[in-house]
Amino acid sequence: MGDEPCYDLNELARSNWHVHTNRSGCALPEMTTGSIAAAAEAAGLRTVALVDHHNDPREDIVGLNGALKVELEEVDTPVRFVIGAELSATGIGKFADSTAVNRRVDYRLYSCNHYHLGHWEHPEERTPRAYAEHMLAVLWNLLPSGRADCIAHPLLASFIAIEGADHTAVTRAITDQEMADVFELCTLNSVAWDLNARCMLDDPEMSRRQWNVGREVGVAFRLGTDAHRLAEIATSPLLPKLMQMLS
Q: pTM for the complete prediction?
């Protein structure tokens, strides 16, 4: 879905590319399509992507997406909805979705760092640098594959627990050159980068580095709030903190 890169946060905030419905077990029951549409319209959003989790190959994400599309046909709203999924790259070359399923998902946002889930692959050595290298290796495999449109909360480590180390030790172990190389691969393969407002606030230093290096390389950012409740759909309340953090 090759975007033209935009680095105006006010413009990026006119869309929310990371919203979960109540089909995601971690989202609140209030996250119905009608309620999401009403909240998005009230927030002045132009585009909203619905991306429920797909962690288990047995989950029928294609059927779920079809049901969401039917529901949205009954919703009168000027907001443009994109229906997709937060797919799972569970390890290097390992995916919860099959190739056949992948081709039937309209918008493919990939999580590569849900290390808190029991079935996720971990590096042999559970050190900050080993996790950094593992995340990078997963991306180097995924990005040229044609499977992904965007990478979810990328290169952030809040899902990683390392004894005796803060999770930011993982992100500090990633060099700017390594980030730049990954961003180059994104641009070559028309893969966007999730500017995940909620997760970014958990690691301001890394978020600022990604923003600065990404702009230098020319990667396409997509702003998302990773909304699991209606109060998280609006992007504008987060803009002051984001602008301060990224400046």
A: 0.95
